[in-house]
Amino acid sequence: MLKTERLQEIMLMLELDGQVYSNEVKRKLAVCDMTVRRDFAELERQGVIERFHGGARMQDVYRSQERSHREKEIIHHEEKLKIVKRAVDLVEDGDTIFLGPGTTMALLPQYLKADFLRIVTNCQPVFDHLNKYKKNWKIYLLGGEFRETTQSFVGEIPQKSLLDMTFQKTFVSCNALSEQKLMTSTFEEGQLQRLALNHSVERYLLIDHSKIGKKDFSVYYQLQDMTAVITEKQTYDAKNDKIEE
């Protein structure tokens, strides 16, 4: 079993009652004591668990159970609208942009003002909204392995497609922002967003303040490498401004 698979299995075990014992992990994953200690150390380094003698428990700040896309749609809706209305002012006619998964991204198409755009996404609800509100836009949906929770496509197929693309602007969100790191719930989703960001000239994080100071399982980007952070309160220079919780 690969390390990433072991870490995900440990997190699933932790979600059941908030803590797990080393012997339990050792038995279920068929690994040695040293491997369990190393995996616990990695999760502790990421800030998602704290260790105790004989086991580990989940940190209170860690988002242990990711909400579904439908659940997220009704949470902080007004804040998301404010964020979107700031973000659309950054999009200009002729831009090629990437929109990551998320309920904030799904609100963007309705408010986009530019008439001529090329837009790529890996998120089904974002794609559906783009089709609903499209003007003279060329719209591309990257297919692959479908992730039900976020209604998005991940894996090798969309990653290979992104390798041959470049963007003027990429807009992403995240489940948590802590210690200058963007975090999400799975490696696969983070990898895809990282690839899109790396192939973009400008990189924008759209996030409401409920996610600032929280932590999640997988770090996928460094805040200092973003262009700006757009919240419901203001737009921050990612390199120079301090983001208030």
UniProtKB/TrEMBL annotation:
All residue ranges annotated as the HTH deoR-type domain in the record: 3-58
Record function comment: Repressor of the lactose catabolism operon. Galactose-6-phosphate is the inducer.
SUPFAM superfamilies: NagB/RpiA/CoA transferase-like, Winged helix' DNA-binding domain
Protein name: Lactose phosphotransferase system repressor
UniProt keyword terms in alphabetical order: DNA-binding, Repressor, Transcription, Transcription regulation
InterPro entries found in the cross-reference section: Carb_Metab_HTH_regulators, DeoR-like_C, DeoR_HTH, NagB/RpiA_transferase-like, WH_DNA-bd_sf
Gene Ontology MF term list: DNA binding; DNA-binding transcription factor activity
PROSITE patterns: HTH_DEOR_2
Transmembrane helix listed as a keyword: no
Organism superkingdom: Bacteria
